[in-house]
Each structure stands twice: as C-alpha cells, then as structure tokens.
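Why should sequence recovery work at all? Because a backbone constrains its sequence more than one might expect. Tight turns favour small or flexible residues, buried strands favour hydrophobic ones, and helices have their own preferences. The token representation captures these environments compactly. In the example below, the structure is given first.
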C-alpha cells in the first residue's frame, strides 16, 4: 500500500540496520516510549536486526495501561447509577479494576457502549436528553484535543447531560520520572510521532538539555523506528543530546496550534496517578473551572470503593518503566493471558505484554514460538 509499504521495504530496512551497526561502538540502551512502536518492534523483530550493542527497552506509552485502577473503579461505580450511559473506547472494556471490569458490568446490566470518538458520546447525549452520558476520556495528548472539542461543543449546545471522566496523561513528565530514578539505565528516547504531531517537539528540548539525553521523534513503521534508532545512536556516539525529528512527514516543532489551543482552553495541568507507577507530578490534564460542570467525578460525587494502588501479582510498573520485560513475570502466558488478564499491559492493543504474548511467547523449551 502506498505510503506504508515504502516504510516496510526489506532492502531499505537491512541497509539502515547496517548503518546503525557501523555507527555503534559502545553499548547503548534506548527506550521507545510509545506502545504502538513497541508492537511494531516485537511484530517485525526490529530489535533482532540491531547490533548487540543496542538494547531497546519499552516505556509507559500505552494510555490504557497507565490508566489508574481508581479511575476504572470510578467508571464502574458511575456505570451502576440509574439512567447513566457510560461510553468508552473498546480497549478499556476488559481492563481489570479492583473487583471487575466494564465488560462484566455491562453483562450485569450497566449501559456501557463502545464509541470511537467523544463526539459519538456527544451525539448519544443529544439523542437521550433523559439520560446522563459519561465519556471515559482516556489517552495521551493525542486524544486530548478531540475530548476538548467535545466539551466545547457540549458547552455551546447546553448539553447538561454530558460529562467526562478524565484520564488524559502527558508524556514528558513520565520521561523525566524515568530519567530521575537512581536505577535508570536509559540513555536515549524515541518519542511517539502522533503525540508530537499534536504537541510538537519543543517541549522535549528542556529535558534533553537538563538530562543530557538525545530524544528523537519518530513514527511506527520499521524504517521509521530504525531511523529513529540510527539518529539516537549517532548522537550518543558523538556525545550530543538534542531533540531530532525523524518523522518530518507529520511532525513540526510547534505541533498543531489549533489542537494545542483547544487543550489549553479546556484543560489545566494536574498531578496524575499512573497505574503500577504511582503519582507523577504535573503529568495529566484536568478540566478547568470554566468547564467543571462537565466533570463526571464532581457530578456523581465521591468514590465509594477503596481503590487498590496496583495488582499484587502484576509487575506492570516494572514493565512500563523498562526495568523488566514480560518474560520476567512468572505469571506471563500462564496465570495472565488476554482472556483473563492480571493487568492492563496484557489487555490493551498497545500493551507490551499483549505484544509479547502475540508474537513472542516461549515454548517449554525456552524458544520463541
């Protein structure tokens, strides 16, 4: 397919892998932040093409995976309220909370609907004036603009039966959290092209300078990722630490002004809990006072359940920060599988554990299947 196949060209991939091998003279550890990139790396065996001096580790760039247990529990509570329709992206339906998931709640009578956009939820609100419509707003900066547009439109239309349960996270603070830990071994980052398409790359420049770490914005196809690795390795070898753009066909330094303006109009930056990781300061969005009437947590009162901080057996926090890989978890592909997950990384289409389960399960003999 045009514009896709050219970034999966086998000869081009081999040539770029050779260029990386020629550049690398020392061992470097590079983290790809995005779950979509992780799936591409595992699916296409991109890490196997790299020289042994280059290690790729996987980061916390799956928004479903880092949505805190407490918010899933809150969504479950709200869904049991009479005359409430809870709208969610499909990835969230099977993510476990403390005592269940949205799929189970739907099976027991809650009106839970899968939507593809917050505008779908807005349309449901317009068509059902006697019901309260709640959109579970999950995602990084990529999806925050569409949520902001939906809130603005709800305000314009006077739809007082529409609200959002906000779980929008911000990527740069998560990178800073990883870099500031005493056990950090990551020396370079590949950031998500779709996040940078919205927000630009300028916000990563202070991080690159402060921590002396190269940061490269790149895409999701094999050539995109390998080119990002090449640029990052070249910087590391030269002792440089700047932000580079390996996804110029979509990313601009200043991002998308209209999307950024919408985010800033509707949201303010706030502290956020990240599932399996804990609180990261200034790492999420919350509704501004002007739009507080659309905040589902305020509308439906305080939570009643006691929320678990994270799963007792799931090592999602270690996986999401690159300290472990799925095979390091004793429960992987045994007690934890997509049909009965212990944690979110096994559920989401961008989850690291789901990627390894699908493409790199080990046989009893220890070989990859």
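From this structural description, the recovered sequence reads:
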């Amino acid at each position: 397919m045009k514009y896709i196949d050219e970034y999966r060209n086998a000869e081009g991939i081999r040539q770029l892998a050779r260029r990386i091998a020629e550049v690398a003279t020392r061992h470097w550890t590079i983290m790809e932040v995005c779950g979509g990139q992780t799936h591409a790396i595992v699916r296409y065996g991109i890490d196997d093409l790299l020289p042994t001096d280059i290690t790729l580790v996987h980061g916390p760039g799956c928004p479903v995976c880092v949505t805190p247990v407490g918010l899933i529990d809150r969504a479950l509570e709200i869904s049991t309220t009479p005359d409430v329709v809870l709208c969610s992206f499909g990835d969230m339906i099977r993510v476990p909370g403390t005592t269940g998931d949205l799929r189970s709640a739907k099976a027991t009578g809650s009106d839970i609907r899968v939507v593809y956009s917050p505008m779908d939820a807005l349309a449901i609100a317009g068509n059902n004036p006697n019901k309260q419509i709640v959109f579970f707003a999950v995602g990084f900066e990529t999806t925050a603009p569409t949520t902001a547009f939906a809130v603005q439109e709800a305000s314009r239309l006077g739809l007082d039966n529409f609200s959002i349960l906000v779980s929008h996270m911000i990527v740069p603070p998560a990178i800073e959290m990883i870099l500031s830990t005493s056990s950090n071994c990551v020396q370079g980052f590949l950031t998500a092209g779709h996040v940078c398409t919205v927000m630009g790359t300028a916000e990563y420049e202070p991080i690159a300078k402060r921590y002396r770490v190269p940061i490269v914005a790149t895409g999701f196809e094999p050539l995109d990722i390998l080119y990002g690795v090449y640029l990052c390795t070249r910087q590391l070898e030269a002792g440089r630490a700047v932000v580079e753009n390996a996804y110029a066909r979509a990313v601009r330094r200043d991002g998308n002004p209209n999307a950024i303006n919408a985010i800033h109009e509707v949201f303010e930056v706030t502290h956020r809990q990240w599932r399996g990781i804990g609180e990261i300061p200034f790492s999420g969005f919350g509704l501004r006072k002007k739009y507080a009437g659309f905040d589902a947590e305020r509308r439906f009162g305080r939570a009643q359940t006691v929320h678990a901080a994270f799963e007792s057996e799931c090592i999602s926090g270690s996986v999401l920060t690159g300290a472990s890989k799925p095979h390091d978890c004793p429960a992987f592909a045994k007690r934890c599988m997509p049909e009965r997950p212990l944690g979110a990384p096994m559920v989401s289409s961008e989850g690291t554990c789901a990627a390894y389960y699908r493409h790199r399960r080990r046989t009893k003999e220890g070989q990859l299947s």
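A few observations help interpret the result. The chain has a mean pLDDT of 92.
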